[in-house]
Specification:
single chain; 5-stranded antiparallel beta sheet; alpha+beta; 43% helix; 3 helices
């Protein structure tokens, strides 16, 4: 079910570093110490996304990876977007282990 603006604001406060784009997308940039760490992260994101059947837009710019999430079928943001964001953040923490930083 598509979330309203109040729910989006509340859930956004629960995921550090994510911003909203017109309350239709949530977006976060992750910076890594090396290009290969970024690629490792993208591979983990892909595995997580496949497991929950919810796939982000992914941009790779050298050591910076940007993820964008929305729920097409709902026409906006849903709980699944925020649940996925939290899982992606954990993948970042696991990979970066202090050598990368969210941007």
């Amino acid at each position: 079910m598509k979330l309203g603006n109040t729910d989006i604001d509340q859930k956004l406060a629960e995921v550090t570093g994510w911003t909203t784009d017109d309350n239709k997308w949530i977006v976060r940039k992750y910076r890594f110490a090396s290009f290969m760490q970024g690629i490792e992260f993208v591979n983990k994101v892909a595995s997580i996304a496949e497991a929950v059947n919810h796939h982000p837009m992914i941009a790779i710019d050298y050591k910076m990876v940007t993820l964008r999430l929305t729920s097409w079928h709902a026409g906006g943001l849903t709980d699944l977007d925020f649940e996925s964001a939290a899982k992606f953040d954990q993948a970042f923490t696991d990979i970066a282990a202090g050598s990368g930083s969210p941007d």
